[in-house]
């Protein structure tokens, strides 16, 4: 190596660092949130999460500019915005459908004021003077464990709000793990008010045979993935691992979703989806997040051919007025439901929004008399190749 090159190399390295920090400056290390709306949490391993939160009348607590940083790693944005965008309820007795997020709203007066005892060790956040959000770290148990001597435990960041809609209540949680996993959850509780003596629809709860009428809630989460620096270069992929005719070989295939599409989960083909960045890598592979379906046991298409119940996951091109999966405001030129949002616009290397639906059939039982034990439904967003090796 000539002495000239030896002199140039450190200079080039400094310029590279300068350009890196120059980029980092344009993209601040913590989200630029309105005053008092920032959440910044560093967990046991040094992994950290930062984001903004906002209280809306309809969706309740909405999170935005969500960024994850593994210990000693680069901080990267994961999501531009994430919300529980609708709870569509159909009673078993054929009563008119209810759209709880838009009809009643999870926020405003329907927020349940949280007690400091419910957030002990954490921090309460306020909207219009009411404590509506608990930010807290909790023990998460093992991050990994093998052999007799290798184990690591850690914490999770848990954000929790709760809403009272008539006699029913919904507790909304967002759980952020040390390893970058995000876990959105919603818990149903409250009291059963819709009752009937008709055993076709109601499960008897009183001595005279009066019972609670069953219903199906369809929860829809809206996730505006904006991976890395650019929100405009994300790619959605469907991955399947399908058995051949001999049922001895399981072959992987990856399909890029070129246009907006609605898809159905398939345990048989191990179908799942991921959003990956169009350019940023972990040094080898593109950074991405995959959708892990949980609580799929009640998933159903509904009884009335509702277009918005025919698929499980929807991939759309970002459109600001597409806020609610069903019963969306059409006055601003947007469509009414996700099946209409999904109208074949191109999404390959674009600003993508993912909508996930989970059905839950609540058939009351005697133990729901006189308060419904919490029933949780949720799923996970799991980093895939976010790091070139386990960051913890
Ligand atoms: Ca009873
Ligand atoms: Ca991107
Ligand atoms: Ca569209
Ligand atoms: Ca996006």
How would you explain this protein's 3D organization?
GO terms for molecular function: copper ion binding; primary methylamine oxidase activity; quinone binding. Its cofactor is Cu cation. It is an enzyme of class 1 (oxidoreductase). Belongs to the copper/topaquinone oxidase family. The protein has 392 residues and is mostly beta strands. It has one domain (35-384): Beta-galactosidase, Chain A, domain 5. The protein contains three helices and 23 strands. It has helices at 3-26, 100-103, 338-341; strands at 38-42, 48-56, 60-69, 76-91, 98-99, 123-127, 130-146, 150-165, 168-177, 182-190, 195-196, 202-204, 211-213, 215-225, 234-243, 250-256, 261-263, 272-281, 286-292, 313-317, 352-362, 372-378, 380-384. Strands 1, 2, 3, 4, 5, 14, 17, 20 and 21 form a nine-stranded antiparallel beta sheet that branches. It has a six-stranded antiparallel beta sheet with strand order 6-7-8-9-10-22, with no helix packed on it. The longest helix has 24 residues, at 3-26. Bound molecules: calcium ion (4 copies). Residues 227-228, 230-231, 233-234, 277 line the site of one calcium ion.
Helix-strand layout with pairing:
Layout: H1 3-26, E1 38-42, E2 48-56, E3 60-69, E4 76-91, E5 98-99, H2 100-103, E6 123-127, E7 130-146, E8 150-165, E9 168-177, E10 182-190, E11 195-196, E12 202-204, E13 211-213, E14 215-225, E15 234-243, E16 250-256, E17 261-263, E18 272-281, E19 286-292, E20 313-317, H3 338-341, E21 352-362, E22 372-378, E23 380-384
Antiparallel strand pairs: 1-2, 2-3, 3-4, 4-5, 4-14, 6-7, 7-8, 8-9, 9-10, 10-22, 11-13, 12-13, 14-21, 15-16, 15-18, 17-20, 18-19, 19-23, 20-21
The protein binds calcium ion (4 copies).
């Amino acid at each position: 190596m000539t002495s000239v090159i030896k002199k140039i190399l450190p200079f080039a390295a400094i310029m590279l660092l300068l350009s890196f920090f120059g980029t980092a400056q344009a993209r601040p290390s913590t989200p630029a949130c309105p005053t008092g709306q920032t959440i910044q949490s560093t967990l046991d391993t040094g992994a950290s999460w930062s984001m903004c939160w906002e209280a809306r009348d309809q969706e309740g607590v909405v999170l935005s500019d969500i960024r994850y940083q593994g210990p000693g790693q680069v901080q990267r944005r994961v999501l531009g915005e994430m919300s529980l965008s609708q709870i569509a309820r159909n009673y078993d007795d054929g009563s008119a459908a209810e759209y709880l997020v838009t009809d009643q709203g999870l926020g405003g007066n329907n927020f349940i004021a949280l007690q400091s005892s419910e957030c002990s060790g954490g921090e309460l956040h306020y909207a219009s003077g009411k404590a509506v959000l608990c930010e807290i770290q909790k023990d998460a148990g093992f991050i990994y464990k093998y052999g007799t001597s290798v184990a690591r435990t850690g914490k999770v960041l848990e954000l929790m709000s709760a809403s009272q809609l008539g006699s029913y209540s919904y507790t909304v949680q967002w759980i952020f793990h040390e390893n970058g996993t995000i876990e959105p959850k919603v818990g149903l509780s409250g009291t059963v008010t819709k009752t009937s003596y008709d055993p076709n629809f109601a499960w008897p709860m009183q001595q005279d045979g009066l019972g609670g009428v069953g219903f199906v809630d369809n929860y829809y989460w809206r996730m505006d993935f904006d991976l890395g620096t650019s929100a405009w270069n994300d790619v959605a992929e469907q991955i399947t691992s399908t058995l051949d005719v001999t049922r001895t070989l399981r072959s992987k295939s990856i399909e890029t979703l070129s246009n907006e599409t609605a898809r159905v989960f398939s345990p048989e083909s191990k179908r799942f989806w991921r959003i990956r960045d169009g350019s940023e890598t972990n040094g080898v592979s593109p950074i991405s997040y995959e959708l892990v379906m949980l609580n799929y046991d009640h998933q159903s298409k509904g009884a009335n051919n509702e277009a918005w119940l025919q698929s499980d996951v929807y991939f759309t091109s970002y459109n600001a007025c597409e806020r609610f999966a069903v019963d969306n405001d059409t006055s601003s030129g947007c469509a009414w439901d996700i099946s209409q949002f999904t109208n074949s616009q191109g999404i390959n290397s674009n600003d993508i929004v993912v909508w996930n639906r989970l059905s839950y059939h609540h058939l009351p039982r005697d133990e729901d008399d006189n308060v419904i034990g919490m029933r949780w439904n949720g799923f996970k967003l799991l980093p895939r190749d976010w790091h070139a090796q386990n960051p913890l």
